[in-house]
Amino acid sequence: MAGDFQPRHLNTDDIPLLKVVEGLGLKPVFGENVQLSFVYMEPNSVAPVHSHPEEQIGTMIEGEYEFELNGVKKMIRKGDVYVVPPNVPHGAVTYEKGCVALDIFSPPRTGYKKMMDEALRKMEEEEGEK
């Protein structure tokens, strides 16, 4: 990723929504050493328990979910913050309310970068066909 970073201003309306699993989408923004992701979960959705080598810090912007962190479950609501060290299992479940959360990763998650590059490529192709 070194050298890919360019200073810029963005609006979340202009960032493609990447569908991760049914009911869960995200809008990632990449810097050279950090990634911010707006996470959108529909009601009654599941972000399966997983782990990754990147450190993650997040907060709830709107709504709520039950967040499982290293086997411990807690309802996360607006204003709550969670810290996920590298390789620690975590996941989330929404119930009657959906949510919007904000996650920060360091270093950026390479899988999300590949997904975003593909989504942007498809958008450019569609624009070229018009």
Automatic annotation (TrEMBL):
Transmembrane segments: none
InterPro entries linked: Bacilysin_H2HPP_isomerase (IPR052535), Cupin_2 (IPR013096), RmlC-like_jellyroll (IPR014710), RmlC_Cupin_sf (IPR011051)
Cupin type-2 domain boundaries: 38-104
Coiled coil regions, renumbered to chain: none
Pfam name, any one: Cupin_2
Protein name according to UniProt: Cupin type-2 domain-containing protein
